[in-house]
Structures are given as structure tokens and as C-alpha cells.
Amino acid sequence: MTECVLVTGAAGFIGRAVVAALADAGHHVLAAIHRTPLPDDLVAHPSVTPAALAFTGGVPQIVPKGGASAPAPTAIVHAAYGAGSGTAGGIPQLAAAADALGITTLIAFSSIAYYGAATGTVTETTPPAGDPGAYGRDKQEGEAALAAWAAGSPSAAAAGGAISPAAPAAPTGGSHAASAAGLPVRRAVALRPGAVYGPDSTFWTVKLLRRIRLGAWGRFGALGEGPCPLVHVSEVADATVAALANAPAGFSAYNLVADDSLTWNAYFTALAAADGRTLPDLAPATVKARVAASVPAKVWRKLGGSGLEAAALAPTRGELATFARAARYDSAAARIALGWRPNRDTAAAIAEAVGEARA
Questions:
Q1: DSSP 329-350
Q2: Which of 33-42, 75-84, 300-309, 338-347 has the weakest average pLDDT?
Q3: Which of 13, 30, 60, 216 fits a disulfide with 211 by CB distance 3.0 to 4.6 angstroms?
Q4: In this structure, how many other beta carbons lie within 10 angstroms of the beta carbon of residue 304?
């Protein structure tokens, strides 16, 4: 079935890949952009319409750019992120927009950060553990808003205060309460990617390469031996297309990890090698000293001081906890329920990402 999909954050790293994948799959895409323009190839795509999304008195207004015309959206993919997204990643506002537009399918990007410090084999029903940090809490609250919307609860835009995390979710297809009450049957999908890499990946390619080139990085011994949950941005986009086609009614969540055969140390080594560099093995005392020195270096640079960039880019305690975590995020549900088929050769994709980032 061909859909008209409103994609928020369409000019972002994941958003661009999602827009291209949806358009190539035959859907029409309303690519909602704010300050950053779409790349020329997407603007030229016959199935892509750049648009502005605004809220006037809580009512969503979709304005195609350049006087273009486009069909009304039938689904929303929420790829916007960052501080400008709003409470719970902006999902409450998007849920209200979906209601106002008569849309019953909402797909949003969560993260494996949802699980916090959970270890072992982590499936969609694994409960979060420990403090997930601000980013993880934001994802938990966003998923709670998604689940409430799918169940037919009033849009979170009308609900004040904090939102509790959603119950751990697997694909249930449940929307019986909404159906029985005569409400529209809704589909709400939370996609939980791992470490999304690619040539424009701010965290897992570009910034890491900067750290490696400045000598701020290395192999962290036992602190870097956790499984690295890699997924290429094109594979995330493919999962979005699959979710639009195959996700059941109700709320469902899916881990997206294509390859966890590398440790974090091995991933850092592969990035460095693709850039023509060799990573040093850092002793625990050296790592500890660098973490401590990074704090004043960060403060200095935020105050406008020059230099100390390498010191400021040392790993944080939170990052090292992530790199050491013995967790494997099972993606069987996405493969079985959605028909997701990640297809990138990891070694080749890493080399390609580094080559493009270097160009």
C-alpha cells in the first residue's frame, strides 16, 4: 500500500536516509525541515516534497515549500531529535498532530539507551535497569507517550507532568480497548537502534574519527570489551520501511542491531585502520587520568579557551560504562515480525563511512 508519510527531522542524519528509503519504496514523503535544507538529490526526487511543520494554537500546519502541492499524510515517522524536539522527544506533540490530522500510524525512533544498564541478552521485554541518563529517560518517556496514544488515551499534549516509562514491550498487536470503544485503531512503533554508524554519524563515526586523529582515543582494555551493537543508517531506514508495511496494530517496539560481532575496542580499531592509523593500548591508570583531565579541559573550552581539545575529547565515565557493558540486544523480533533484513557487510561499510567522512 502506498502511503504519504510525514517525516520530521528529514534533513538529519537518520531522517535523510529514511526519506530516501521511503521514496524509493514507492511512498510519497512530506519531508519536514526546519533550518537545515534537504540535500539536492532528495529535493529532486519526484516522490519527495520539502515542507515546513508548524503548530498554531496546537493545530499542526504542513506547508509544502515553494508552493508545491502534496497529498495529505497518512502516517508520521518521527526522526527529529535533540533539545528542540521538546518533552519526551516531541512525541506528545506529534501524537496530538496525528489526532488532528486523522493519522493512525506513528513510527518514532527510540534507542537501546531505553534499557539503561541492562546486561545479558536484551529483548524488547527486558525491563530497564539502573539510571539510563537524560537521553535514556527521554526515550522511556517518549515510548510511554506512544503506548498511551496507541491504546486510545488522550494525546499527551493535553497531559501535564512527567510521563512514566512504558512497560517493556514486544510486538503485541493489541488495540482491543480502542477498537471496543469505537476509536480508530492505531499503530505506534518504537524503533530502538543500537550504535548507528555511517559517513555522517555524529557520534559513532565523525566524532570518533576526530578523537582518534587527535590522539584522544585508544583501546581501553577490559573497559572496551563489551559487544558493539552496530547498525548502519541505511539498515535503520530499511527497518522504517518494513515497520510501515508490517507492524501490527497497537504499540510495538523493536531492537535494531545488525552486527554485534565486534567489541567496542575492535570497532575503534577498525575505524582507525580505515583512516590509516593505529590505536594504542591504554593502561587503566592512563584511562583514569585522561577521564579526570577531561573535565577541566571541557570547562576551559566552553569558556572560550583555546587548545586542550584532545584532553576534552577523552572518554567520559558514562561512555566507558557503555563500552564495557556485557549486553547483546536481540533483534529477532524485527527480523520476524517486520521482515527486516540488514544487508550491509560491516567491514566494508566501516571503510566506506570513513572514506566518505574523509572526503
A1: E--HHHHHHS-------HHHHH
A2: 75-84
A3: 216
A4: 6
- pLDDT on residue 52: 87
| CB-neighbour burial class of residue 227 (10 A; exposed 0-12, middle 13-18, buried 19+) | buried
Q: Is residue 279 part of a domain?
A: no
Structure-block grid coordinates of residue 156? 499527551
In a domain, 47, yes or no: yes
- Residue labelled with grid coordinates 583501546: 219
SS3 120: strand
Q: 132-165, pLDDT tens digit by residue? A: 999 999 999 999 999 999 998 644 444 433 445 5
C-alpha cell at 350: 566501516
Is a pLDDT exceeding 70 seen at residue 209?
A: yes
Ordered DSSP codes for 157-198: GG--S--PPPPP-------HHHHHTTPPP-EEEEEEE-EEES
Residue 299 lies in a domain: no
Question: Is residue 297 domain-resident?
Answer: no
Query: Domains in the chain: how many in total?
Result: 1
CA 13 to chain CA centroid, Å, is 9
Range of the domain at 143: 4-194+230-258+327-344
Place of cell 520530521: 8
Instruction: Find the CATH number of the domain harbouring 337.
Output: 3.40.50.720
Q: Which helix (H) or strand (E) holds 42?
A: helix 40-43
